[in-house]
Amino acid sequence: MDTSACFQLLNFAIQKRSKMQNRTKNWTASQIPFRNNGVALITGSTEGIGYEDALALSSAGWSVIMMGRNAQKGAESIAKIQRVNRNAKVSFEKIDLADLSSIKAFASGMIAKGHAIDLLINNAGVMTPPKRLETADGFELQFGTNHIGHVALTAQLLPLLRKSPGARVVTVSSIANREGMINFDDLQSRSSYAPGKAYSQSKLANLMFALELQRQSEKHGWGIMSVAAHPGVSRTNLLITGAGRWSVAGMMRTLLPFLFQPSAQGALPTLYAATSPEAKGGLYYGPDKMMETRGYPAIAKIPAQAQDVNTAAKLWKISQELAKVAF
Fold it and tell me: Residue 156 phi/psi, 5° resolution?
């Protein structure tokens, strides 16, 4: 074979390998494995990232239970999904993650039905309300909803998750966790409330919970894979409903939408963590470009404070006490 032919063959091999790597790297919802008998529960799924999760999973054959506080929004979301896929198996269950009694009532209903749960996506969140607000149980709203509510829900659904071989729990964090610190002296921000600081603490708690849940599953043989994900900077209504439309963040979301990737793109790391055979327990996934603000799913960087296993163990214990549950 002459030199020219060798170079042509080498160039062809490089191009083919590059294309294969790009297909693997640029993972999309079209690559979700079809699963005709999978049951998925998604909190906060009537809009935004959670809605995109529900749409993608139901399109891949999953039976999806959409969860939220507003039954009308739930009905509208189901209708919207079924306009895209009339055979979608979607239903809605009302739950308020800012109320432990609501979580208990929901979980008790699920336990009574006895159906195994294959996937739980802890997605719902509250973001930076300008004034300190509290849940029904007296927790700071962001810490109580984003973290304690999901701890309570996951613990109470644990028996149904354990009934499913290979069940996964995906907990959605945020790049805001990089600025977070767990303040055990003031978890509820009673002494001093700063919206962004409280939000960052709650999202750091989400990530630490996901990592500790994996460690606990391995320790106790639960057979559950726990994974964390974040959506980068995505175009959802979370900023507007939390900080307010006329906040700096809300104005940026309204007037500079090009800075935010579409919510369907932002949902990809969660969907990858939830369904990809390549996803691993105890890892964290987010977008792969521009400091993890946008792009396709990839392994995300875990901030140093989230890797502190002693803090994670303490948070695990205290969170169960606050949520009035035990794993």
Answer: -75, -20
CB 81 within 8 A of CB 55: yes
Alpha carbons 142 and 18: distance in angstroms, whole number:
43
User: DSSP for 143-157?
Assistant: IIIIIIHHHHHHHHH
The residue annotated as part of the active site, out of 51, 193, 199, 272, is 199
- What's the whole-number mean pLDDT along residues 263-273? 97
Backbone angles phi, psi at 304, to 5 degrees: -55, -40
How far is it, in rounded angstroms, from Cα 14 to Cα 230?
32
Residue 101, C-beta contacts closer than 8 angstroms, at least 6 positions apart:
136
User: At 172, is the secondary structure helix, strand, or coil?
Assistant: strand
CA-wise closest residue to 295 among 50, 52, 30, 28? 28
Given pLDDT bands bounded at 50, 70 and 90, which one contains residue 246?
Answer: very low
Question: Token pair for residue 122?
Answer: 């802890």
pLDDT tens-digit readout, 85-135: 999 999 999 999 999 999 999 999 999 999 999 999 999 999 999 999 999
Q: What is the pTM of this model?
A: 0.88
- Annotated catalytic residue 284: no
**Strands in the chain per DSSP E:** 39-43, 63-68, 89-94, 119-122, 168-172, 225-229, 234-235, 261-262, 284-289, 294-299
Dihedral sign (CA 125, 136, 94, 208): positive
| Distance separating alpha carbons of residues 287 and 234, to the nearest angstrom | 10
- What value does the CA radius of gyration of the chain take, rounded to a whole number of Å? 20
